[in-house]
């Protein structure tokens, strides 16, 4: 029996590679004769840099110190591939995990992500691949654009503050000095297809998890709408209805305005690690992420892996820290929640690898 384990990271808990290895270890305890193939996944969010580093021989991490989402310095890195491509991950520079338990819904921003991009450009990369999941802010990518040379001012001509708070005061935006893209272009790996504004936009769907109240959501949505109109006066690619424009608090929109191409992150990472080739030889595929819920069907790793497995008539199981009441588990032959196995969210989070091994044992017993 050949088992393919292709988990995403469990945000704030365990990385994709370690999560996949733990499930594999649990399976082998029950079925030591099985061939277990690891294909850790990512969709543009946390773990994307690690996925490229593991899959591309000769990839080199380049350390960089940037301004994090709360304004303090953060030590991060970007990845230089042998062909001259630079890979930069928003999660490790401007990500929500960098805030810990705090949320700064009006003040967090994407400056650090832009600074890391600028560092890659300074190093002479010929192409950029940008992962934009797990953002801490709803700043429309304004911090990133300013780090790349944009200027945003209020009615008195003063530079506006960071974050959504600053966007609320924007009167004019100057993109004249924004740095040009590298010759090979910019590919953006996104894990969602939401537009910038409206009921399925960045503020409405993702704002609450970043600390926005219901009243805040309405205000920020209006702020993003005015911001988009202002950007559109200067950039032909600035389309707030573009699928993925609402990714990372609107950073997808800002990158499209810069001229980048937005693509589904899970699909591009799957190509990199040859997921389809591994699945073709599998008896079962195991996928998962930290929280499998109603949003997981739109570009997230488990839904993508399920589709790949279904296309080759291979059964697939899902493992998640929690499985939401709104989750669609149809199409999975087994679904395992770590919270249910551990008895509580606190117990599951305290030792996630233990419960991932338990999930591996459970699936081996059920499937056997």
Can you tell me about this structure?
With 368 residues, the chain is α/β, with parallel strands linked by helices. The protein has 15 helices and 13 strands. Helix 12 (301-311) links the parallel strand 11 (284-292) and strand 12 (316-323). Helix 1 packs across helix 15 (352-367) and helix 8 (214-232) runs parallel beside helix 9 (247-258). The longest helix is centred in the middle third of the chain and has 19 residues, at 214-232. The model has no long low-confidence stretch (mean pLDDT 94).
Shape: globular
The pLDDT mean sits at: 94
Distance between the termini: 10 Å
Helicity level = 25-40%
What's the helix-strand series? EHEHEEEHHEHEHEEHHHEHHEHEEHHH
Low-confidence stretches: none
As a percent range, the share of strand residues is 15-25%
- Radius of gyration over alpha carbons? 20 Å
Count of alpha/pi helices: 15
Q: Largest sheet, if any?
A: 6 strands, mixed
Strand order in the largest sheet: 3-4-5-6-9-10
Number of strands: 13
Structural class: alpha/beta
Question: How do you describe this structure in short?
Answer:
With 368 residues, this protein is of the alpha/beta class. The protein has helices at residues 16-30, 48-55, 91-94, 111-122, 142-147, 163-168, 202-206, 214-232, 247-258, 265-273, 275-280, 301-311, 338-342, 345-350, 352-367, and strands at 2-7, 35-38, 60-67, 73-80, 85-89, 127-131, 151-153, 172-174, 186-190, 261-264, 284-292, 316-323, 334-337. Helix 8 packs parallel to helix 9 (247-258).
């Amino acid at each position: 029996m050949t088992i393919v384990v292709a988990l995403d990271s469990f945000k704030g808990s365990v990385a994709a590679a370690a999560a996949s290895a733990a499930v594999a270890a649990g399976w082998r305890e029950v079925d030591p004769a099985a061939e277990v193939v690891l294909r850790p996944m990512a969709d543009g969010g946390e773990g994307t840099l690690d996925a490229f580093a593991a899959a591309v021989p000769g990839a080199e991490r380049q350390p960089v110190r940037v301004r994090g989402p709360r304004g303090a310095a953060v030590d991060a890195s970007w990845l230089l591939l042998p062909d001259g491509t630079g890979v930069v991950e928003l999660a490790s520079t401007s990500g929500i995990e960098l805030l810990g338990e705090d949320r700064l819904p009006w003040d967090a921003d994407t400056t650090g992500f832009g600074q890391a991009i600028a560092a890659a450009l300074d190093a002479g990369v010929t192409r950029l691949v940008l992962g934009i999941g797990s953002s801490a802010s709803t700043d429309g990518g304004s911090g990133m654009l300013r780090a790349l040379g944009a200027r945003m001012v209020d009615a008195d001509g003063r530079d506006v503050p960071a974050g959504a708070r600053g966007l609320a005061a924007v009167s004019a935006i100057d993109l004249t000095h924004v740095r040009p893209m590298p010759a090979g272009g910019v590919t953006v790996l996104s894990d969602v297809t939401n537009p910038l504004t409206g009921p399925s936009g960045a503020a409405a769907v993702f704002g609450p998890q970043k600390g926005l109240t219901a009243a805040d959501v309405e205000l920020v949505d209006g702020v993003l709408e005015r911001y988009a109109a202002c950007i559109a006066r200067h950039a032909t690619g600035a389309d707030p209805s573009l699928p993925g424009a609402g990714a990372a608090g609107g950073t997808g929109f800002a990158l499209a305005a810069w001229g980048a191409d937005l693509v589904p992150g899970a699909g591009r990472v799957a190509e990199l690690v040859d997921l389809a080739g591994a699945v073709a030889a599998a008896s079962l595929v195991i996928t998962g992420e930290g929280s499998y819920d109603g949003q997981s069907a739109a570009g997230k790793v488990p839904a993508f892996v399920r589709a790949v497995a279904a296309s080759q008539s291979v059964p697939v199981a899902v493992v998640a820290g929690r499985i939401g009441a709104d989750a669609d588990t149809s199409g999975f032959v087994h679904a395992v929640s770590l919270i249910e196995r551990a008895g509580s969210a606190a117990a599951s989070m305290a030792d996630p690898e233990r419960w991932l091994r338990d999930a591996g044992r459970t699936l081996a017993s059920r499937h056997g």
